[in-house]
Hints:
This protein is of the alpha+beta class. The chain has helices at 3-10, 14-22, 41-54, 59-69, 80-117; strands spanning 29-30, 36-37, 125-132, 135-142. The model has no long low-confidence stretch (mean pLDDT 81).
Amino acid sequence: MRIGELSRRTGVDEQLLRYYEKQGLLAPERSPNGYREYAETDVGTVLKIRTLLAAGLSTATIAQVSSCLREDVLPAPACSGVVERLRGERDRLDRAIEELQDARTALDDVIRRGHDAGPGGRPGEQPQWGTAEGGPTLNLRRSA
Length: 144
């Protein structure tokens, strides 16, 4: 299949598919006239690439581990370090998820307090936006 069809089937822009090729993530055949010819299995490969990118892996990391993730090849001895690397990536994701859950809890608390206070807020309290290391914060300060 040509690049346009692969793009349509995967929802990935043609420019990104070319980038994946430059990064060694895809290796299409070339027709005599120079067109890229992708195999049916490249649809699944692109979807795996997108999943790993969404998980926060870089294209360089994906290129290093991709040969160990192919379903048609038994893991080679060179793949032994891949499992540890992927565990490290999973641990990084777990930390990021925990931080996001903490942020969501804080946001829910602000929403709850705003909802409980009604449209005018609590008497004598004015919202004050400030900044902290993690970004903007909302403080309810009692006015005098």
